[in-house]
Amino acid sequence: MSQITCNGSASPRPTNIFMTHMWAMFAVVFLAIYTANLAAFMITREEFHEFSGIDDPRLVKPWSHKPMFKFGSIPWSHTESTIAKYFKEMHSYIKNFSKSSVQKGIEAVIHGQLDAFFYDGTVLDYLVAQDEDCRLLTVGSWYAMTGYGLAFARNSKYVDMFNKRILEYQENEVIWVHIAR
């Protein structure tokens, strides 16, 4: 049974009113979530130097760009020797910004003394993941993918000793083992 209003039309049923309110509530919630996500995306967006990799022109010829980009590595490391072998101009530049350890290099980046720090990608990825304040970021592509292997003669007496030691190191988190399949 519906009621007749002054102009002769039937008044809306309670179900219609309820559905209209539900639709309006959905629209308000959806709009609020969208606006919050948009604001969060715009606020947390930080600028960083995007590099194509170690062969990026800003790194290969560091003196040709103003302001000069400050980056370094660890002297006498594999990373530094690779740069010395293949990127001579870059190598002479990074000597000015060398750090004695990975931790000192990371701290120099965090405190703004360096714009970037070059080292083994796996180590840097691990340290970035450990940074609870999200102050670090790895950019660019890896220059070289290297790994290490060890070969023994068939039926070598050292295989069991080596396997036990590797398992011991892995259990004590001295090394991390990645098995490729």
Question: What report would you give on this structure?
Answer:
The protein has 181 residues and is mostly helical. The chain contains seven helices and two strands; from the N terminus they run ααβαααβαα. It has a two-stranded parallel ribbon. Helix 3 packs across helix 4. The longest helix has 31 residues, at 14-44.
Order of helices and strands: HHEHHHEHH
Strand order of the largest sheet: 1-2
Assign the structural class, choosing from mainly alpha, mainly beta, alpha/beta, alpha+beta, or little secondary structure.
mainly alpha
The best one-word shape is: flat
Low-pLDDT runs:
none
How much of the residues is beta strand, in percent? Answer: under 5%
What's the total count of β strands? Answer: 2
Helix content: 40-55%
Can you count the helices?
7
Largest sheet: 2 strands, parallel
What Rg is obtained from the alpha carbons, in whole angstroms?
30 Å
Distance between the termini: 73 Å
What's the rounded overall pLDDT mean? Answer: 81
